[in-house]
Design brief:
This protein is α/β, with parallel strands linked by helices and 375 residues long. Helices cover 51% and strands 11% of the residues. It has 2 domains: 5-156, Rossmann fold, CATH 3.40.50; 161-374, Rossmann fold, CATH 3.40.50.
């Protein structure tokens, strides 16, 4: 397997770069808005209002243990780890001026419940769980309310022309990610899942201006790479993989597999479609981030409608269903979801875990056995 981006980047290097970028944004008068994961909030609206949208995407074993002091071990590992980073006033999260919270899921709601301990002001945002017409209208109203609140805090009236420019910039980034992703989907692939994982998280915490040139350079150099020859090609679904969680690297480096696709909020769900520019921009943002999302928190689970198409496009040989322990969004309907896959005669392996490194050997054995079966 050829040299990859993880050889040149580490979690700490990406974070240190993000800290410099955010400090520069603050010097220019921007406020930093921490936004929870799930890919349900338009970065474009936040950016246009004079805020830097910082995705809360850091996780770690030590921070999960800090979060255990506030939440039960039977709650979401992501929320416990996020609370840990906020409580210890991590250098990146200490730059946050406001925190967007609400019932995105139980985990995210718990992060907001303890905001007084981090001394960060919160902005509530409610996302419905179903995609009915009434829910869509409710979400649009929430976006308009958020717009007014951000304008009030920053004293920046969102200009429609500027918002359109920001949307175009984000669409360009999504287009670059789609182009790069094609080189992972083809068989044999020319990039690894770990590389794309680092690129997307670099975008989440470093922002659009920093990452767009890096994506262009990365895309332009792909054709000079060697092909990655393997039949151990897997598609990931389920709970998102955050920065600090080495699951992609574990599959590819420790177990010898290749992640050639996923439908997660921490990957393909963000960049698979663009925001329309014509007509009402707020409605178009709502269509992209609410109606078009394939997040497992929604009822019914929209992934069942799309996963077979994504799986086929990725030329994968099997699916790994990754579930963070006690993640209600992905554990509640897992049997129904798994049966829909098995009924298509697609091999699937269910992995349920948190950020502790217990049973790493057992996990390696299970994944290696699955990869041997599908190759």
């Amino acid at each position: 397997m050829n040299a990859t981006i993880e050889a040149n980047l580490s979690m700490n290097e990406i974070i240190n770069e993000a800290i410099k970028i955010i400090e520069d944004f603050k010097d220019k008068g921007y406020l930093i808005l921490g936004i929870p994961q799930h890919n349900l909030i338009p970065d474009e609206l936040i950016y246009a209002a004079g805020f830097f949208p910082l995705h809360l995407t850091l996780v770690g074993k030590d921070q999960q243990e800090i979060g255990d002091e506030f939440l039960s071990p039977t709650t979401c590992p992501y929320s416990r780890a996020t609370i840990g980073f906020l409580i210890e006033k991590h250098d990146l999260y200490s730059k946050i001026d406001f925190l967007l919270t609400g019932p995105f899921c139980n985990g995210v709601q718990n992060i907001g419940n303890y905001s007084e301990y981090y001394e960060i002001k919160t902005i509530p945002f409610i996302v419905p769980y179903s995609k009915t017409q009434q829910s869509f209208e409710f979400y649009i109203n929430e976006l308009n309310r958020l717009k007014l609140k951000l304008e009030e805090i920053s004293s920046n009236k969102i200009n429609e022309s500027y918002l359109k420019d920001i949307i175009n910039k984000y669409n360009k980034i999504r287009s670059l990610f789609r182009e790069i992703n094609k080189y992972r989907q083809i068989n044999p692939s020319k990039i690894t899942g770990t590389e794309l994982y680092y690129l997307i998280h670099q975008f989440f915490i470093c922002g659009p201006d920093f990452v767009i040139e890096k994506l262009q350079d990365f895309r332009n150099n792909i054709n000079y790479r060697e092909e990655i020859l393997t039949n151990k090609r897997v598609f990931l679904t389920g709970s998102g993989i955050c920065l600090g969680d080495n699951f992609y690297e574990f599959i590819e480096k420790e177990c010898g597999g290749l992640v050639v696709g996923e439908d997660m909020w921490s990957g393909y769900d963000f960049y698979r479609t663009d925001v329309e520019i014509s007509d009402n921009l707020i409605i178009n943002l709502a269509k992209k981030y609410f109606l078009d999302c394939i997040n497992g928190r929604m009822v019914p689970d929209p992934r069942i409608k799309y996963i077979f198409k994504f799986y086929k496009e990725s030329n994968a040989n099997g699916i790994i269903y990754h579930i963070l322990k006690y993640c209600d969004s992905y554990s509640g309907l897992k049997n129904e979801f798994k049966m829909s896959i098995l009924n298509k005669n697609i091999p699937i392996l269910e992995i349920e875990r948190d950020y502790a490194e217990l049973n790493k050997g057992q996990l390696k054995t299970r994944i290696e056995a699955f990869l041997e079966m599908i190759s």
